Amino acid sequence: MNSNFDVGIIGGGPAGLNAALVLGRARRKVVIIDEGRPRNRVTKESHGFLTRDGIAPNEFRNIARDQLRNYPSIQFVEDIAKEITGRDGEFLISTEEGAVYKTKKILFAVGMKDLPLDIDGLSEAYGRSAFVCPYCDGWELREQSLVLIAKGDRGFHGVKTLLGWTNSLTICTNGPDEWTDEQRGEIELRGIKIYSAPIKKIESKDGFVQQIKLADGTLIPCTGVFFTPKLTIGSKLPQSLGCEMNEAGSIVVDSFGKTNVPGVYSAGDAASEMYQVIAAAASGAITAIRINSELLEETWGNIEKINRI
Ligand SMILES: Cc1cc2nc3c(=O)[nH]c(=O)nc-3n(C[C@H](O)[C@H](O)[C@H](O)COP(=O)(O)OP(=O)(O)OC[C@H]3O[C@@H](n4cnc5c(N)ncnc54)[C@H](O)[C@@H]3O)c2cc1C
């Protein structure tokens, strides 16, 4: 049994790492348990984080972990948290490797993960020339011939968004478009072609998309693809502890990362629909400050109990 941790952080992506940094600097004893499967591991470069634009996701995490080594109260563990029991002040985290950690508070920074991609050829191009977020990767594909695979309201929003990066846009709905006549009309009015036949295959070379083949034989040449991924939360542990979830499948939190379960917090993609590294890191920092405030309140008046390192 590894005892006396103030905070157990599940997940060592930008949210969990930044939370650990803030808590370590606040002299809190922290264990951060990470399985090492961040959502952006398929991509070569991560964009949009000031001073780190274009960095490889792995390098970002390695720099962060190096910096955490400056704080002896932070323990980084490569393992999978598989069960959490207990309550506020005395949680027990059991891991795949058989370790047990006793912590006062829990922070879920477990991210989101993609459900298996169900289009032939998409996984070969994912992270190279097929992406999910134009804010992350649109600049690199600006003014190229792009295909957006999308349908329904989210897809309609995607069409409007992607036009900010290219005027050469084609839509594949891969089946019924689920649009109103008005939405379809608005898209066509802008000269954008819509194909609804199912996609047979996305053809690429070394990860670079060349064309999309539809089931009716149509070929659409393109150099990049955007699509709407199907996501699920990175771990079922929040639900098993009783955390309230929203319709998008993320954890319901207040503006400081507090869930409905006493002593349990969440940050990053798991608790937001703003899937950005800088937003995840920022929410990790904010949540860490909130957790530290709660711990300080609990020990106020009883200095002996402050868990100083
Ligand atoms: C293809 C792609 C490209 C992207 N490009 C960009 C970009 O250019 N710029 C940008 O800002 N954002 C980008 N993103 C979004 C970015 O990846 C996320 O917003 C960010 O990683 C969220 O950080 P996080 O810490 O919340 O979660 P993650 O980075 O996903 O980390 C969660 C961690 O928790 C671990 N974990 C989960 N469950 C457990 C468990 N039970 N026990 C132990 N560990 C566990 C996971 O293995 C993982 O390591 C991209 C996403 C994708 C899919």
TrEMBL record:
Residues 5-284 form the FAD/NAD(P)-binding domain. Gene3D superfamilies: FAD/NAD(P)-binding domain. SUPFAM superfamilies: FAD/NAD(P)-binding domain. Keywords: Flavoprotein, Oxidoreductase. One of its GO terms (molecular function) is oxidoreductase activity. Coiled coil: none annotated. It comes from the Bacteria. Its cofactor is FAD. The keyword Endoplasmic reticulum does not apply. Homodimer. This is Pyridine nucleotide-disulfide oxidoreductase. It comes from Robertmurraya siralis.
